[in-house]
Specification:
The chain is α/β, with parallel strands linked by helices and 205 residues long. It is built from six helices and 14 strands. The strands form four sheets. A four-stranded parallel beta sheet has the order 2-4-9-12, covered by helices on one side. A hairpin with a 2-residue loop joins β7 and β8.
């Protein structure tokens, strides 16, 4: 691992410590400023860090390896997002507010259309690597993953590619979508559908 990889591995810990400190401050000095500071640490600081990291070290689609001497931009971006994977309730709250989660994903660099319905239980592993059209409905327990990792020749091979979901798509509960998947406009995915890397669904008739 490179020095930057090691530093960013501690990013979730830093967010936890800062969040705890700001919460204590909020309890001791309640007010709008303390509330804003607490929310900024939980939601604003990770997004700002991600966008700066993406500007300096953009995540590139394709194949790379994690055990080499070169820095992996995906590794850094993953560590910045890890707090929301470990504590999904932080994003569940946003999905209860109409429009809030779509806006949240756009802040990470995702392309999200209008009138998208998000169920409370959902996992998006790479927030900036999804493209979602208009009037998309996500069922319960959906997983969208724009990366996969597999052992290969005593190394860890990483494959990254954005997921693209068209207009008017319905994703059935428990479905999982892999990197590079393209879901055509008007597609209906039955319950527990698993789409594998680079799979393209035919347009529904």
């Amino acid at each position: 691992m490179t020095p930057l990889s090691v530093v960013l591995a501690y990013f979730p810990t830093v967010i936890l410590l800062l969040s705890a400190a700001s919460f204590v401050y909020l309890c001791a000095h309640p007010g709008l400023g303390a509330i804003a500071l607490f929310l900024f640490i939980l939601y604003g600081l990770p997004v700002l860090t991600y966008r700066l990291h993406q500007w300096r070290y953009p995540v590139q689609p394709g194949i790379s390896y994690l055990r080499g001497h070169a820095y992996s931009p995906w590794w850094g971006s993953h560590q910045i997002q890890a707090i929301y994977i470990a504590f999904p309730a932080l994003e569940t709250v946003l999905r209860l507010i109409p429009g809030a989660f779509s806006l949240w994903l756009r802040l990470w660099g995702a392309k999200v259309g209008r009138q998208v319905y998000w169920t409370p239980k959902l996992e998006i592993a790479d927030r900036g690597l999804v493209e979602i059209g208009d009037r998309v409905v996500f069922g319960h327990g959906i997983g969208i993953y724009s990366h996969i990792i597999k052992p290969r020749r005593q190394d860890l091979m990483l494959y990254v590619k954005p997921v693209k979901i068209g207009n008017g798509v319905f994703l059935g509960a428990g479905s999982h979508v892999a990197p590079g998947v393209v879901i055509a406009d008007g597609t209906y995915l039955p319950v527990a559908t698993h789409l594998y890397p680079n799979q393209t669904t035919p347009k529904s008739t």
